[in-house]
Design goal:
Layout lengths: L1 H13 L7 H7 L21 H27 L3 H13 L1 E2 L1 H8 L3 H13 L3 E5 L7 E5 L1 H9 L4 H10 L3 H17 L19
Antiparallel strand pairs: 1-3, 2-3
């Protein structure tokens, strides 16, 4: 009994009775060092502004039209308007100048100039109309027909095919957006034909 009492006193001197909750005392005596949040190393690339993205897209369209026009003239010897007129004639073989002008959305004077050039290169001929001897028909020659068949696909035709595959609301959205761009560039006042060609429409 005496030995137990001595051991008890020694223990209490070395380990005094806690005055507060042992859990609270333990946390109070610890300086918690929480790990710092890791900062992810992200490779930040310069963000292209909306204006630059739009200007680049417009430049790409302009270059695509220019390159296609040069390719057509190099491969066929014909300009884009000339080839469009030949393709229009291929449908029936012959047509009146006024009908052609309406179909390709060009003025009668421009169509006349194009026909003059095509006639010089033997792509078309002028013949009196069988219905009315006072009017003249533009007739596609064999050389002109071969030119059309051997010509590469036109950018305008591919574009219109892709456009036709879009939903109506997508087509309307594209039209309104591009028309807005034309207004912003003050280009809506310019008289223009629905032909993908850079610069003036040359006969």
């Amino acid at each position: 009994m005496l030995w137990n009492h001595i051991l008890s006193n020694i223990y209490l001197r070395k380990y005094p009775k806690p005055t507060m909750d042992i859990g609270a005392e333990w946390f109070a005596g610890i300086n918690l060092q929480l790990p710092k949040p890791l900062t992810p190393k992200v490779c930040i690339k310069p963000v292209m502004s909306n204006s630059n993205a739009l200007l680049i897209a417009l430049r790409q369209i302009n270059r695509a039209i220019d390159l296609q026009s040069k390719k057509l003239e190099r491969d066929t010897g014909q300009t884009t308007p000339q080839l469009l007129l030949l393709k229009e004639l291929e449908k029936e073989g012959r047509a009146k100048p006024s009908v052609i002008a309406k179909s390709v959305h060009l003025s009668h004077a421009t169509v006349t100039s194009i026909v003059d050039r095509l006639e010089k290169s033997a792509m078309v001929t002028r013949e009196k109309s069988a219905d009315d001897g006072r009017s003249v028909d533009i007739v596609l020659t064999k050389k002109g027909r071969d030119c059309v068949r051997n010509a590469p696909e036109m950018l305008q035709e591919d574009f219109l095919i892709s456009l036709s595959k879009l939903e109506t609301w997508e087509q309307n959205l594209l039209i309104s957006s591009v028309q807005r761009i034309a207004v912003m560039m003050d280009a809506n006042r310019l008289d223009s034909a629905p032909i993908l060609e850079v610069g003036e429409i040359q006969p």
